[in-house]
Amino acid sequence: MRKLLLGVVATVFFIACAQPAEPVKVEGDWKFKEQVEGSATLNPQEEAMITSIASLFIDGEVSMHEGVIQMKSPKRGSRKGTYTVSDGKLNAEFGASNQIILHMKNEGENLSILFGDASVEELGKIVLEKR
Question: What domains are there in the chain, each with its CATH number?
Answer without folding.
Answer: 24-130 (2.40.128.280)
